[in-house]
Amino acid sequence: MPTDYAPVLYKADFVGRYAKGEFGNHVPTWNNPNEYLDTISDGFTHLLKHPLHIRNRIAGGPTWYNVKPVYLPIMWDVACTYCGHDNLYLSLMAPEDKKVFQGEVMRGYWGLDLYYNRQPLPMREGFEVERLSASGIIALSLLQWYLCPNSYEWLQTLLDRYPNHVVEFSTYSINFGTLPNFNTIVWEVRSY
Question: Where are the domains of the chain?
Answer without folding.
Answer: 29-92, 96-191
